[in-house]
Design a protein that fits this description.
The complex is a heterodimer.
Chain A (H helix, E strand, L loop, with lengths): L2 E3 L4 E5 L4 E3 L2 E3 L5 E7 L5 E7 L5 E3 L5 E5 L4 E6 L8 E8 L7 E2 L3 E6 L1
Parallel strand pairs in A: 2-12
Antiparallel strand pairs in A: 1-4, 3-9, 5-6, 5-10, 7-8, 8-9, 10-11, 10-12
Chain B lengths: L3 E4 L2 E4 L5 E7 L6 E7 L5 E8 L5 E2 L8 E7 L2 E6 L8 E8 L7 E3 L3 E5 L1
Parallel strand pairs in B: 2-11
Antiparallel strand pairs in B: 1-3, 3-8, 4-5, 4-9, 5-6, 7-8, 9-10, 9-11
The chains are: A mainly beta, B mainly beta.
């Protein structure tokens, strides 16, 4: 079965600084990978996904993620963080064909003015 | 993107009562819907997969007699928490999948259940 590790429970950055959220997955074949964002008391919004092709994926709100098979990673990046980016971020992996994601524990992003 | 709604957004009930949560796909037909449970500061745990017109498929460890799922139409799935207890208090999130090449799931805003 697939699994996801998000090693950072909290990340604090200053507004305008760059951001990288880490995600490592475990799956025997080529995975489907996702990043979601959850604002307090809200559902999840898909930021971006990787199914195949270019390993650098562009998403909404200026986010991007890079799939690195050799490192089993799918880290999320943003060059300049805005205060409105403060939220919970979930990395997820799905087995090929199922599209049903298994979620990591999440990383809470705190943005200082 | 497609919109999924949940109702109610918050519910408080007494121990021993049953609570029904609705999940609707507003602008697309969802042959498959999913129910997740999220504890505070935790990840989402898939509870069950709901297929229109057939019985739900429950994940291991989820009591199907306690968490009743009905998917009677292509736009509505319901989760009923029967004989609720305080340990059932949680954030319940549904998602719906629009058939297509990406099979992307669209998530509802969640329902906060508090059992007193």
């Amino acid at each position: 079965a697939q699994s996801v590790t998000q090693p950072d429970i909290h990340i604090t950055v200053s507004e305008g600084a760059s951001l990288e959220l880490r995600c490592n997955y475990s799956y025997g074949a080529t995975p489907y990978l996702f990043w979601y964002v959850q604002s307090p008391g809200q559902g999840l919004q898909l930021l971006l996904k990787y199914f195949s092709g270019d390993t650098l994926v562009q998403g909404i709100k200026g986010f991007e993620a890079e799939f690195k098979r050799s490192q089993s990673s799918f880290n999320l990046r943003k060059p300049s963080v805005h205060w409105s980016d403060a939220a919970e971020y979930f990395c997820a992996v799905a087995a090929g064909g199922s599209y049903i994601p298994t979620f990591g524990r999440g990383t809470s992003l705190i943005v200082h003015p | 993107g497609a919109v999924v709604s949940q109702h109610p957004s918050r519910v408080i009930c007494k121990s021993g009562t049953s609570v029904k949560i609705e999940c609707r796909s507003l602008d697309f037909q969802a042959t498959t819907m999913f129910w997740y449970r999220q504890f505070p500061k935790q990840s989402l745990m898939l509870m069950a997969t709901s297929n229109e017109g057939s019985k739900a498929t429950y994940e291991q460890g989820v009591e199907k007699d306690k968490f009743l799922i009905n998917h009677a139409s292509l736009t509505l799935s319901t989760l009923t928490v029967t004989s609720a207890h305080p340990e059932d208090s949680s954030f319940y999130i549904c998602s719906a999948r629009e058939p297509g090449t990406t099979n992307e799931q669209f998530f509802g805003p969640g329902t906060r259940l508090t059992v007193l």
